[in-house]
Amino acid sequence: MEITKEMVERTATALKLEDITKRKVLTTPWQPKVQYAWDDGPAIGRYLAELKNGRIIARTCRKCRRIMIPPRMFCELCWRPSDDWTFVKDTGVVNTFVISHVDWKAGRLDIKGGERPLTPAVIEIDGASAGMGILHMLDEVDPWQIKIGMKVQAVWKPQAERQGAITDIRYFKPLAPERKRGK
Amino acid sequence: MGYRRVAIIGAGMTKFVRFAQETGKELAYEASKMALDSAGLDLSQIDCVSVGSAPDAFDGVHMKGEYLADGSGGWGKPVMRNFVGGGTGVMNVIHGWHHVASGMFDTCLVVSEEKMSSAFPHPAGAFVTIFDHTTEQPIKPTLLWIFAIEMNRFMNAHGYTKRDIAQVAVKNKKNAIDHPCAQLPGEITVDDVLNSEVMAYPVNRLDVSPTSDGAAAVILAAEHVARRVCEKPVWIDGVGWALDTAYWCTRDLYYPDYVEVAARKAYEMAGIKEPSKEIHIAEPYDPFTYKELHHMEGLMLCKRGESVKLLNDGVTQRTGNLPICPSGGLLGVGNPISAAAVMKIIEIFLQLRGEAGKRQVPGKPTCGLAQAWGDLMQVGTVVVMRS
Amino acid sequence: MALAERIHRTIDATHWRGEIPLNYIYTPGRAGEQFLRALLDEETFLGARCAACGVTYVPARIFCERCFARIEDSFVKLGKRGTVHAFTVSHETFDGVRKEEPSIVALIKLDGADGVVLHRLGDVDPGDVRVGLPVEAVFKPKKDRQGSILDVRHFRPAKG
Description:
A: five-stranded antiparallel beta sheet, B: alpha/beta, nine-stranded mixed beta sheet, two-stranded antiparallel ribbon, 18% strand
C-alpha cells in the first residue's frame, strides 16, 4: 500500500498568504492577552537583586562540588537542596555564538543599511563551574571577529538605571588585554 | 520482560502545506481515515487513541488533545495525549506502543497533527516561551538562535564547514521530490544553500525546514491481531527516550547525549549491538541541516566526528550503504512539528515493506530506525523497527 | 529533604512580569467555510447527516465522529428555527463587573438536527424563557454580515 499522490490530493487544501490577508476564505482573528507575573523564587530573586547591585551570584552544591549559575535551590544532578551562596566574576568565556540577521519577531534587520547584526552567545562565567553558561548578548566587537574561547567582560548599566533584571548587564564585550608589567 | 510484541499495520498522512484551509480536526481525520483504510479496519476495531501534538499555542486552541480527539477517532474511547516538543511524533508512537504492549489494549490509533499557520504571521511569538521567562526572554531571543548556537558549536568541535553541512539540504530536498506530500521538494545545489538569505550565522534560509500544517497517523496492533489482519506487519522492536536538563547553557551542545541514552535503550531492547551495521535505514530528525549529522552521531550510526565523511562518501544517499532520510526529511517534506516525526516512522514502515514507490531504497532493508528531538534541545526519542 | 533556604516575608517575594505575544487568524476549515457562507448568503444553518448512524450534526462537518464515515457530500440546509434546549442568564462580565442589562445565553436545538448551537436570546424577557421554547434566528442585514456566527444577531421566540 504505497501512499500515492492521488490518495493525498484532497487531504489538505494549500492556501496562499493572500487568501488569508484578503479574506478569500472566511477568517476569525484573535489576539489573546497572555500576561504573567512569574514568581522568582529564592534563587532567581537573589540573582536579580544582586544584578541590581552590579554583581553576579551563584549557588553551590557540596556533593558534586559545582558552582551553579543561574543559581538554583536544588542541584538537579544530585537531587538534593543546594548549599551556599557565592559570588562569581562578571567576566567569562564565549562557549558559542550566533550572528543573527533576524530579531525576536522573526523580522529582518536592515544589515545592508548598516544595522549591526545581533550577536547572542553562551558565556561561561568565570568563577562558576566549567561549562556553566548564561545566554547574553555580545557587543562592541565586530561580529566576524568573535571566536569561541574569546574572553569577555560584562558591561553594566549605570547603578541608577538598574532594575534587578538580566538586562542590568547591557551586554558582554571582549576583555581588554592585561597590561604588561614594567612598561 | 513482561510486555507484548507490537506491530504497525497501517499508516496515513496528509500533504504538508504552509497554510492549510482545513481545521486541525479535519487534518487529523484525513490522516486517521487513510490509516484505518490502509489497515482494512473500521473505527469500532480501534481500542484506544493516542494523540500527539506540540504546544497548544501553535494551533491557538486550548486543550488541543481534547479538540483533536473526535477527528482522531477518539469519540467515546480511551484517549491520551502526549507532548515532548519536537520529539512528540516518535514519542506518540512510543506512547501508543505502551498501550498495546502492556496488554491493556489490542489496537491503538496513533495520530499527530499540527496547524502552525493559525499563529499569524509566524509562530515566532509562541516559540519565544521556550526561553526562560525571567533570565532569557528580556534579552529578546528567537528560536533560531538556539539552533545557530548549537550548529556553531558542532562545526567548531569537529571542524565541519557550512559547505559540508549544506549537502544535507541538497540530498533531502532531492529525495523529497518523490514524496507525494512534500512541501519543499526540489533540486538545489550547495551554492544555493550558501547563497540563501542569512538568518543567523551559521544558519541560512535553506538550512531550515519550513513551518507547516499537516497530520499523520499509524495503527498499532498486538501480535495476535497483526498476524491475523496484516500481510506485512512491521514490528516495533525497540523504544527509547531520554530528556536532558533545561539548563541548556550548561550542556556542551556539540553532542546530543540524550539521543545516545535513548538510542541505547532502544538498541538494547531490540538486541542490536552494532547499530552502524545492523540498522539498514534511518530517519533521524532533520529540522536543520546540521541536525541530521548531529543525530547520526548521537544514534551511534557512525563515530563522533565521522558523520560528514559518510555524507561526503555518498553512504547516506538512497543508493548508499546506510540511507539517511530517504523520505526527504523535514527539510524536504515539511515540519508540522509532531506530524513530521510520524511521517518518518511511516517512511520506515513503507520502506521495510517495499512499498515506498520511487523512494524505495535497494537491498530489501529489514531493520530501520526513526528518531525525533525537541524541547529546549533536550529530548531524544527513538524507535527501532523490523519487518 | 526540604530546600535549605526560604523566603520568610511575603514582601521579599519578587516576581517578573512578562507577556507571551500571540496573534491568531483561524480558518474555519472545509466544512466551516460552507457553514459560514450558508449563514452569510442564505440565512440558513448547515448541518451534515450521517445516514449510517442516523445523526445530523450541526455545524456541518466532514466526518461522522461515531463511525468515521466521510459525510462531506451529505450537507443539509436546516433553516433557522429550533427550540431552547438549555439557557442561562448572565449578569456579570468576564472580569466580574455587573452588567447593566443581563444577557441570555442558550443552547438551541435546531429543527432537523441532533446537535445544539450556542447563541444569545433576544427580544424576550428572561422570565419568559423556558426549555422547549420555539425560537428562530434573527439575521443582521446582508450588508452587515461577515461570514461569522455573529451574522445571527440572536434567536427570538418564533412567530407562528
